[in-house]
User: Fold this.
Amino acid sequence: MRVIIQDNYDKMCKWAADYIADKIRAHKEERPFVLGLPTGSSPIGVYKELARQNQAGELSFANVVTFNMDEYLGLPHEHDQSYWYFMHDNFFDHLVDMKAENINILNGMTDDPEKECADYEARIASYGGIDLFMGGIGVDGHIAFNEPFTSLSSRTGVRNLTTDTRIVNSRFFGNDPEAVPSQALSVGVGTVFDSKEVLILINGHNKARALAAAVEGGVSQKWTCSALQQHNAAVIACDEAACGELTVDTYKYFLDIEKAERL
Assistant:
């Protein structure tokens, strides 16, 4: 596992965007580069930088296929809190050469959620799997909508959202937790960690316990982010504010080892 500690959120996002861009540029195969993407506040700065590079002609998305992590069940595309809307508003609509047919987002209005999820897994497999999955985590360490105690081998499926998650997300729904859908479609923990590489963004003081659990804690369903410890190519990009619960030795180790790699 690599832990990249940056001074602040903006530097964290710039590092993560450059890392993703370098991977896309280095991809020389005829098959597309397959990129997994999250929603939420953490990746917005990454999306802005990737879009800037794309608009400046520094990075092409013409041979990139994307798969998003999740979608609320029961929200249509045009709803301003659907993740389809979020992704287009914050990222896809700002790319000059992203092909609409290469964008994959779970359909929250499906009549058959189980089939939708099975088909999503099949589409991922049809591309040979995901090359790099970027994600964020919740304050309780959940990845996508895989709440605490979700199986670490779970696949894409229907997820019941906890009261805590609905309360946290209610800020986007007029501060009314009851307005937040009670279910979502989400890739599984196993789906994410089947990817060749996983890049997780962790920023802010409120994510400090989750970062410590992901790096220093035992592997546990209580903290789904802890599955990072078992991935051969896991990277955490974080800011200083998120490091408050790490032991001093751990903090110094990752600063030192990354400095050594740059020399």
Q: What stands out?
A: Residues 2-262 form a domain with the Rossmann fold fold (CATH 3.40.50.1360). The two ends are 19 Å apart (CA to CA). The mean pLDDT is 95.
